[in-house]
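Researcher: Please predict.
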Amino acid sequence: QVQLVESGGGLVQAGGSLRLSCAASGRTFSWFAMGWFRQAPEKVREIVAAINWSNGHTYYTDSVKGRFTISRDNAKNTVYLQMNSLKAEDTAVYYCAADRTAGWGVTTNHLEYDYWGQGIQVTVSS
């Protein structure tokens, strides 16, 4: 059974940094897309970044380009989201997700993801 467990969230001042981790277990994740999503109160869930586990292809939403970096550690079965220069508008619950049918690409539509973590709060104070 696939499990995704997020860690690393918390409270940080604007301009600060956090690193989110997503520990994945339950199977091998070759050719999966791994995504980070976020959802703020009264807003829809949006893609933040995604990475193809096997070829490393990445995607970033425009608002985080140049500030966030997604990466994976195959040996640890863990996906990371390094978040720098954080802004108040980055405040949200962040979710890790896995799409088992991504193939060579990365997936940006949350409806295509099969597995989800429980979510972790990131709060950026201004």
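Model: The longest strand covers residues 18-25.
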